[in-house]
Amino acid sequence: MQEQDKEISQAVIGRLPRYLRYLGELKDEGVERISSQELSERMKVTASQIRQDLNHFGGFGQQGYGYNVEFLYAEIARILGLDHSYHYIIIGSGNLGKALGNYLNFERRGFLLKGMFDRNESLIGEEVRGIKIRHIRELPEFIRENKIDIAVLTVPKEEAKAIASVLVESGIKAIWNFAHVDLNVPAGVQVENVHLSDSLMKLSYNISNSANP
Question: pTM for the complete prediction?
Fold first, then answer.
């Protein structure tokens, strides 16, 4: 059970999806239990780091036994809120928006695509996995009528702030933002900013600063 008297750092939360991914692979391999040391060897992180992270939520391990893989997988999924489904929409139906709309693994995790939007008239009426692309002016009504939880923003940065305001006014509580601009939203609205070029520049740094063989 998660300890309620101390805040969990975003760094710890950010590592949970990776634990879930590795545990999912172990389940698929038929592994029933694993020690923190064995898990650390797979994940290339220290066993102490794994134990510290999991201890924030109760630990889940047993001395001399390790972790029950299926149980730990289910508990981390629950902590991440994956024990129920979410409805999401995509605003911006260009190449990136369509690629995200076609990514079936979101659905396997409980994220259900309910709508796609754009202002480009040439895209209106196209379908992605049976979802018809609608004009962006339909956003407020669609959100209210379909109980949308998450909005995915893949629009040019010049449009992102204005669209984010419409989303917030329409009751959206979470935005996954791929626009190359940081969004300022009211308290209570969660934003995850994804700047793809930042990751590429980090890779560039690591290449440039790696030791020559």
Answer: 0.84
